[in-house]
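Hey, quick one: can you model this chain's 3D structure?
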Amino acid sequence: MSTRPLPEPTGDSAPFWEACREGRLTLQRCTACGRLQFYPRRYCTGCMGDEMTWETVSGRGTVYSYSTTYRALSPAFRNQVPYIVAAVDLSEGPRMMTRLVDCTPAQVHIGMPVAVTFLRESDDIALPVFQPQKNPA
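Sure thing. Here's the predicted structure for all 137 residues.
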């Protein structure tokens, strides 16, 4: 499938990638303080608690910031340009670095409502990316 470098799930991130493969966006929730966090890690970034659970979230958010890449720094991404890298504020709170798809650079704007979709890159990896929301609520 993909010739680009792909994430390699670790013990901390494996549940995240398994959910992505199933078409679900999940975040860790700290059982001590209730904080949701992204990216997956062993400890809570709020209270340093080490009891984390996984929660499926809506996959909706808004563009906080973005940048368009017109020249690939790696040959593996040459056929992808231009592509849009964005920081998306998820409705549930955490901010996620991602790619925007199904829109042109001219269409993107700060505050644009977006929703997650998944790009199947291999049998094991589906990447969460975001596209403009069809019917923002």
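One thing worth noting: The mean pLDDT is 94.
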